[in-house]
Each structure stands twice: as structure tokens, then as C-alpha cells.
Amino acid sequence: MKKISTLAAAALVGAAAFHHAGVALGDDGWVTLMDSSSKGEWGEVGKANWAFKDGLLSADKLDGKDLAYLVSKTSYKDFQIRAEFWVDDEANSGIFIRCDQSEKIDAKICYEVNIFDKRPDPTYGTGAIVDVGKVDPMPKAAGKWNTYEITAQGPHLTVVLNGQKTADVQDSKHLNAGPIALQYGSGVVKFRKVQIKPL
């Protein structure tokens, strides 16, 4: 009985640690990084006017020339992400995964799942993994709520936007655990929920 009590206490401490880190661990294994009740805890690279209001995490302006990112405090290796987002026509955003570091974020040291309807080369626009997984035809995300489902398991990466698979590739450039990041580049970008489930 004492062993069971010790295990239960350890589980509670672990759950409290997750909660303290600004994430909520669900019974189904999903970790909520942000939702309508909490912005969560993120590091920042670059500066944008990120604000948490009416249950949404949003930005519509850079503070400087560099792109801005909210970076997770935890690193993840194999996982699924569910992210609900809204962007306008001018938006340049994305979700970066398995970043090699947390102080600098770009598509060379992370995988970038793009949200960029007006990208000059639409091959790597919305729905694509920049320079890794092309999308054809490129879906449009502007003006509506969208759901990304991103899976990274070993070298296998898949992206599903609103129920439609947009990228399915094998790539081994970034196999190690790393933080994820939400990008603000231009336009209006809003996130309503971001969850991750370690695999």
C-alpha cells in the first residue's frame, strides 16, 4: 500500500510540475501549451506585439525588423501537434518544430510548417514543410479558423491541414528533440489552441 501511495504522490508531483511549467497534461496524453484559458509560458526570440485577449494569442505588428517567435520551454522529439489558428491574407506565420536551439529560430535549424498564403513560391507556402516537403496545390488558410495536425516520428513527418494531408516526407536533418516555436512575420496571426502529445 505504501508503494502505491508513493507512486500516486510522484504522479501528483509530476502533474504539478507540468502545470507549473505553464502546460496542462490531459488524461489522454495531450499537453496543452495554450488555450482559451491560458497563454502558457513561452520564451521570446525577436519582438512582436503578442497579446492574450478574449482567449486568443495574437499579434499584428513586429517591433523591429526581425521575425518574432514564441518558443516552448520544453523540447520534444517524437510527437503530434494540434494547433488551431486564424490568419489574414497578409499573414506570414508558421509552426517550427525540433529546433536545434531556442535562442535562434529559422528554417535552417528547425522544420518550418508554413502558414503563408502569399509566399512568392507557393511550393513551400501554407501546408508545406519549408525546403523539405512541398505542397501542391497550396491550400489557403486566410480568413477562417484552421487546424494543423503535425506528426514527427523519427524521420517521418506529416502535415494535415483541416483534415487534408498536405505533406508526408522522410527527412533526417533534425532528428533530435528540440523546442517548438510559433512565428509572427506579418499580417494578423491568432492562435486559439496549441497541444502536443509525445509519442
Mean pLDDT reading = 91
The fraction of residues assigned to DSSP E strands is 35-45%
Provide the gyration radius in Å: 17 Å
Shape: globular
| Tally of individual helices | 1
Distance between the termini: 31 Å
Q: Pairing-aware structural class of the strands and helices?
A: mainly beta
| Largest sheet, strands/sense/barrel | 9 strands, antiparallel
Provide the helix percentage: under 10%
The number of strands is 14
Poorly predicted ranges: 2-22
Topology as a string of helices (H) and strands (E):
HEEEEEEEEEEEEEE
Question: Which terms summarize this structure?
Answer:
1 helix; nine-stranded antiparallel β-sheet; 40% strand; 14 strands; five-stranded antiparallel β-sheet; 199 residues; disordered N terminus; mainly beta; single chain
